[in-house]
Structure formats: structure tokens, C-alpha cells
Write a structure and sequence with these properties.
The chain is built from 9 helices and 8 strands. The protein has 290 residues and is an alpha+beta fold. The longest helix is centred in the C-terminal third of the chain and has 16 residues, at 213-228. The radius of gyration is 22 Å and the shape is globular.
Amino acid sequence: MTHTLPIRRDARTGHPLDAALRLAASGLPVLPLRADKRPFGNCRACTDNACGGRPNMKTPGPCVCPWPCHAWAAATTNPRVIGSPQWVSVWRRAGAVAYHPGGAGLTVVDLDDADAVAWARATLPPTRTVATTRGEHWIYSGTVRSVNGVRPGVDIKSSMSYARWLGPGAGAMTAVPDAVHALVEKKPAARPAPRPVTVPAPAGSGRCPHRSPVFLERGIAMAEQRIGAAASGVHATVYATFLAVLSVHGRCGCLTEAHIERLFTAAQAKGESPRHCADAWANAAAALGL
């Protein structure tokens, strides 16, 4: 059964619990998000699926844990669950409300930047549209398989996924178009190789004159961790991390394409497009005069 999104009151206002109850009453299965906009981690009983439920997040059962565990699989429309003591204790720490699109018979085309929005406007039929921090959510009636990175800056969120509630949006909702079905049925495009950066070679043997290979490896690993831990401001974090790596190793000639690829991979895992990665790297190099 497909549900319509509530349009009378924007659930961004008020306490997250109040918003969640309103959304659930309209038929949207909801769950709390942390301040960094990610689901709350599993409780101790469910860590690493020790509870035996929801293996690999493929099904919403058989775990009967009373806490909002298991990300999208915890989403519910049951007001008794949403208002239970366990859930209320989590709502007090929640930073936002999310919903399970597939559970409401919906598909969200998540457009992460202006280029992705321009592509959608030229390619997809109009539907309900919700503004996001960097782009837009286009919401269609019907469900599909969820796939991230179907094209630069575009994720498909429907079954076994969650989307942040950002308001009712505007426009009449239409059915999932053939173009979206085609996107989720094909494999995501292969990542292009990172743009090479030319840096001045050191004098002498070509070895880094002041850093060891172990130091370089540790630096790359720390950079990957820094990008992976970014809870918000991913663009800024990626650029700052690239800048930090280049400031230490950009003039030594010790960075290889393998190192750059590792950094690009970490950034793309956080939702950055290959173009954004290449631009951030080039801009960081330019800022350092490399």
C-alpha cells in the first residue's frame, strides 16, 4: 500500500518525537537519527546481530528488541513502540527523524548537488520535491531496490533504506518512472581513476627526505579515518584532509596513485562524486602552489 506524505504541518518543527508520531500516523515508518544524521547503533544485545535477527539488514525480524536498533529495519508506524520508554530515551538524544521509504511504498531519488538536480530536471518526470542541504529529494510513488551511486551525486532510497525527513515538499507525487527502474537495475558506473597530481620531485635519490614509508602509511590511514568519521560538512572535511596530506607529502614525491586512490575511495564512500574528489585534490594542490 502506498502512503501519501503529510502536507499540513512541516515535521521539522517541534520535538523529534512529536514529529515522528505525526509522520507515523500518516503511514510513514519512522526511526530516530543521531545528531550526525545516522541511525543509532545497536544495543548490546543486538551488537553484530548477536540477537539473531535482521541478518545483513535483509529482513525486519525476528528480533524483538524494544530499542530502535537495526537502522531502517527498526522503522515503525506503531505509536506504542515509538512512545515506549526505550524509544523515548533515544528520542531525547535524537537530532532528526528518518523514515523507511520502501515501508511506505515510496522511492526517494536523493540528488546530492546542483549537477545531480540539473540532471533530474532534464531526465525525470516532475514529482514531489523536497529541498535538502546540498540538493533535493525527488519522491515517487512505488518501490524499487535501493542503490547508492547510480550516477554522480544520485542515490536511490526505497527498500531496505532510510531517508531523513526534511518536510512535506511541494508538487504532485507521480509513479516511479522507467528511468529510475533502469538506474537501479544496472550496476553503478565504475569509478574513474583519480586525477594525477604533478608535484616537484625532491633532489637526490627521489626518496622523501624527511619522512619514512611508515610515517606516510600512517598518514594515509589517518586521513582515511578522518574522512570516514565525518558526520557533517563532508565536502569541507575531504578538502581539508587532502590539503593536509599534500602539505606534508606533496613536495616529497612520495605520494603514489595508489595513495591518492585510497583517499578518493574514502571520500566516495561518504558520498562524494569522482568529480568532487578530483576538484578537491586539484584545489588543494593549487592552494599549496603545487
